Amino acid sequence: MLNNINKEQLREVTTPVVDRNKIHDELTSARNHVLELISRNLTEFGEKYPAETCVNGYYPLTENVEWTTSFWTGQLWLAWEMSGEDKFRIMAEKHVRSFGLRIAGRHDTNTHDLGFLYTLSCVPAWRLTANREARGFSLLAAEALLERYHAQAHIIQAWGDLNDPQQAGRMIIDCNMNLPLLYWASEQTGDPRFADAAQQHVRHAARYLVRSDASTYHTYYMDVITGAPKYGNTQQGYTDDSCWSRGQAWGIYGFLLSYIYTGDREMVELSKRLANYFLNRLPDDAVCHWDLSLLGTDALRDSSSAAIAVCGLLELIKHLPLTDPDRESYHQWAMRIMSSLTKDYLARHSDAGNGLLKHSVYHLADNKGVDECCSWGDYFYVEALVRMTQPWKPYW
Questions:
Q1: Is the pLDDT confidence value at 241 over 50?
Q2: Cα dihedral 288, 293, 298, 300 sign
Q3: What is the three-class DSSP state of 149?
Q4: Does 174 qualify as catalytic in the annotation?
Q5: Mean per-residue pLDDT for 20-33?
Q6: Average of pLDDT values for 87-103?
Q7: Is residue 394 situated within a structural domain?
Q8: What are the phi and psi torsion angles at 48 (to 5°)?
């Protein structure tokens, strides 16, 4: 599967090595600050959810719709794990009931992002508090996600009507992050259908979404009748043949998540190659442009991609032997990116707005969430913060 992938070498860190004591102090301070921001938003949001991105610095509040609501619930679970304060758990549990109603009524569930939605809301409730209702809601979501699997093409369709020829057969790099819900469902039930579909999908993602130079397509189309590959393009990147930074970050992290459940070491090697491509194209402050092909320009940064990549790098380190020549470099890069995000991108109390991580880009061509906070950027920054400051068992 990986023989056609370029073995691009990781370039050396060109700035002084990060001082671990200094970064520890920075992140300890950031934990306290982030908990204050989440606590403030807990009061401000009530039982509603922030929309996908801020508008002029503030999240519009919504009901439990769209693909991003669980990123707020995930922050609440992380805040409870960081602080032990019951107010975070209590609100997260209210969200669990909302997610239960959503999947029972199939409200806005026609998407592969059921993985994001239930892995960060109901699965943590089961893992952390043994909430059996949350387990049941998650299994219903896994069944709904499995319905999006095209057996002939061996992929899970991202979004759109499964019977619409114009929509059918679209897989996207983001879906790697949705697969843990399927693996988990097989573990919980003993039914191999879920994990089998996830494994088939991730192998096709590795084969068709990853180019020979270890960059990635955002989107790839398969023929759902014959199973033949069709073509790759982008929905949110700069061009069809560029490398959308958030997609590359989803790849770094998402292929590893399949390794955790399958033990397929090719997923680790693939993550390394995607990580090398990503890290070799960072600007001086180590926070990527919204598309990696735009290095050397004044293009906007996407802090959310950087936060996702930090989580992926920290997960990657866990699965590399101590003798791996790049292991320490990945750790240095993770600390360097995190330090930059903390110093220059994390919202301050004096800032007008209610997001956490500033300067992300959701969809530039649609002028959506451009240079704003976004819900997934906030979540993955907090996840990275937890990963770097305490022992933590991932929700994924």
A1: yes
A2: negative
A3: strand
A4: yes
A5: 93
A6: 98
A7: no
A8: -90, 180
Quote the number of domains for the chain: 1
- Which residues share a beta bridge with 159? 111
We report the CATH number of the domain holding residue 333 as 1.50.10.10
* Set 19, 25, 113, 213: catalytic member: 113
SS3 of the chain: helix, strand, coil, percent, to 5: 50, 10, 35
12 falls within a domain: no
CB 389 within 8 A of CB 28: yes
Q: How far apart are CA 173 and CA 216, in angstroms?
A: 8
Contact assessment for residue 209 and residue 4, using Cβ atoms and an 8 Å cutoff: no
Range of the domain at 252: 20-389
pLDDT above 70 for 12 = no
| Whole-number Å distance between alpha carbons of 299 and 287 | 12
Contact partners, residue 394, CB within 8 Å, separation at least 6: 315
Cα–Cα dist 320/313, whole Å: 11
Residue with tokens 């704003």: 372
> Which of 375, 364, 365 shows the shortest CA–CA distance to 53?
375
In angstroms, the CA 309 to CA 311 distance is 5
Is 113 catalytic? The answer is yes
Domain-located, residue 193: yes
- Give dist(CA 287, CA 202) in Å, integer: 27
The pLDDT confidence band at residue 15, using thresholds 50, 70 and 90, is very low
Compute the mean pLDDT over every residue in the chain, rounded to the nearest whole number: 95
DSSP secondary structure letter of residue 214: S
**177 and 116 in contact (C-beta within 8 Å)?**
yes
Q: At a CB cut-off of 8 Å and minimum separation 6, what does 94 contact? A: 47
State the pLDDT at residue 108: 96
Q: Does residue 66 lie in a domain region?
A: yes
Note the residue count of the chain: 396
User: Which is higher by pLDDT, 151 or 17?
Assistant: 151
Q: Per the residue annotation, which of 19, 174, 351, 378 is the catalytic one?
A: 174
Q: Is 129 exposed, middle or buried (0-12, 13-18, 19+ CB in 10 A)?
A: middle
